[in-house]
Design goal:
By secondary structure, the protein is of the alpha+beta class. It has 2 domains: about 10-225 and about 480-505, D-Maltodextrin-Binding Protein, domain 2, CATH 3.40.190; about 270-475, Dipeptide-binding Protein, Domain 3 (Dipeptide-binding Protein, domain 3, Roll), CATH 3.10.105.10. It has helices at about 10-15, 60-65, 115-120, 130-135, 155-160, 175-185, 230-240, 250-260, 290-300, 305-310, 340-350, 370-380, 390-400, 420-425, 435-445, 450-465, and strands at about 35-40, 70-75, 75-80, 85-90, 95-100, 135-140, 145-150, 195-200, 205-210, 225-230, 245, 265, 270-280, 355-360, 385, 410-415, 470-475, 480-485. α9 runs antiparallel to α11. The protein is globular, with a radius of gyration of 23 Å.
Length: about 500
């Protein structure tokens, strides 16, 4: 059945769905080793699409070892990958994906519709129940055609397949998983991506070797090693000495050192993650945070320009949630830095001397100073909080498990569309909502008419802004240094801040 264009995003994907790729026979065999000093720890759960995370950092193993029906690539957000094309029924209940012939897993097994069905139902991460409950039937029509049929219209289904939303569209080999089990798969994952798994040492390194049978192209580099190095000064020293070729997240004074070094190139890729403050206790009438004036005061207390300049050079302060270029995102003015007005609002709300705001969960590691600076701005107007520090995998598990109730979270909406961001914030990851906003969101999810959907999501964003349901803070960049032997800009995918696609990275001969 010919697809009906559900909205502008789906129109874009329909165009990208016509793209074709294939291995370039003229390419030479993969050569060399690329070493990176990365700033984040990789969880074993992230090696398996069934338990993959939604943060940008969790997608590095996906792009290295695995492949998806469609994914964010240099060609656009809905680039066809294991699925070469797809169609959507007029009522947005049936999605059919035509699989790419010749795609295979690292063990030589072909990628089939049965693998797609198996991977969908095997997915058990944050959005699993929500997506599984929506599905009426998922079937392999034939080895190269898979059909998803939903109980009700689901026009946003493709957004849930994108980077930053879920990993439910990333495909694993059914026969291999059934043979080794989930635990065996995590120890030695086999995917359909550009690199084969070699080694994983938690908190230390992850290593892959080129898979020359990758359908898109033969990778340029033979071996890729990602080494976790927490200290930015150490990452800088390693790339300056030539111990690694790329060092990630070099901000503030270490970034200035990169600029001065003629042997290094500096890149500042933009992340889809938008730093926002999520006050989960705002729905408790006994909490000070339930007063809009208090949330507004907390926003006015923040010097967004300084936060961006110090922690995410090249980023800017936020007034809303949407990313630049998203046709459905609404732009709002950025709150000014006005601590005196913030104090006046607190006094009007009945807190002239301030108050204790409860538990406060920032991101850890290199992002902790960002969260601490927010605390300092609040302290200056009289709001104190209790800092709780968790490792990133633990932070995500607590956030997804509903364990941050009654707290303040320095949160991130990582999806690349406003619909995807709201799916995270208003869906299964919600700690509360307002009846009028929730009613409009429910209508938006069911409506298939493009103009009506745009009106609904516009209204939703305006209400969120008026109620200050979340406090937008800044966008995020992730400055990285690359040795001169790394050809060009290694960050080729828009809004994916780690060097990718891995198969496209090149080293000078």
């Amino acid at each position: 059945m010919r697809a009906r264009r559900i909205n502008l995003c789906l129109a874009i994907l329909a165009v990208s769905g016509m793209l074709q790729f294939g291995p370039d026979a003229a390419l030479s065999a993969p050569q060399g080793v690329l070493k990176e000093a990365i700033h984040w720890s990789i969880s074993a759960d992230w090696l398996d699409p069934a338990t993959g995370g939604y943060s940008t950092s969790a997608y590095a193993p996906m792009y290295l070892f695995h492949d998806a029906l469609l994914k964010n690539m240099p060609e656009g957000p809905y680039t066809p990958s294991l699925a070469e094309s797809w169609t959507i029924s007029r009522d947005a209940r049936v999605f059919e994906f035509k699989l790419r012939k010749g795609a295979k897993f690292h063990n030589g097994d072909p990628v089939t519709a049965e693998d797609v069905v198996f991977s969908f139902w095997r997915y058990k991460a944050a959005q699993a129940k929500f997506l599984h409950d929506k599905a009426e039937k998922v079937e392999a029509v034939n080895p190269n055609l898979v059909r998803f049929q939903f109980k009700k219209p689901f026009p946003d289904f493709l957004d849930y397949l994108l980077y930053g939303s879920t990993t439910i569209g990333w495909v694993v080999p059914k026969n291999y998983v059934e043979k080794v089990g989930d635990a065996g798969f995590k120890k030695h994952p086999i995917g359909a991506g550009p690199y084969k798994f070699v080694e994983f040492v938690p908190g230390v390194k992850m290593v892959g070797e080129a898979f020359e049978g990758y359908w898109r192209k033969v990778p340029n580099i033979k071996r890729i090693e990602l080494h976790t190095v927490r200290e930015p000064a150490t990452r800088l020293a390693m790339v300056k000495r030539g111990e690694v070729d790329i060092a990630t997240l070099l901000t503030d004074v270490v970034m200035e050192e990169v600029k001065k070094d003629p042997k290094l190139n500096l890149f500042t890729p933009l992340s889809p993650s938008q730093r926002i403050v999520y006050v989960a206790s705002q729905w408790d009438p006994k909490s000070p945070w339930s007063d809009l004036r208090v949330r507004k005061a907390a926003s006015l207390a923040l010097d967004r320009k300084t936060l961006a300049d110090v922690h995410s050079p090249g980023a800017v302060g936020l007034g809303g949630l949407g990313l630049p270029g998203d046709p459905l995102a609404v732009s709002f003015p950025v709150d000014p830095y006005d601590p005196e007005q913030a104090k006046k609002l607190l006094a009007e709300a009945g807190y002239p001397k301030g108050f204790h705001g409860g538990k406060y969960y920032p991101f850890n590691g290199p992002y902790l100073p960002f969260g601490e600076q927010i605390m300092n701005y609040w302290k200056a107007i009289g709001i104190s909080v209790d800092l709780v520090i968790l490792e990133r995998p633990a932070w995500m598990a607590a956030r997804d498990g509903g364990k941050m109730k009654e707290a303040i979270i320095v949160d991130q909406a990582t999806a690349t569309t406003i619909g995807g961001q709201l799916s995270y914030l208003l869906g299964s990851g919600a700690y509360g909502s307002y009846p009028d906003i929730q009613a409009l969101w429910d209508k938006y999810q069911q409506n298939v008419e493009p103009n009506a959907r745009k009106d609904l999501i516009t209204h939703i964003q305006k209400l969120i802004h008026e109620k200050m349901m979340w406090i937008p803070v800044t966008g995020i960049t992730s400055p990285l240094a690359a040795a001169k032997r790394v050809k060009g800009n290694p960050c080729k995918i828009p809004l994916v801040w780690f060097a990718s696609p891995f198969e496209d990275i090149e080293l000078e001969k």
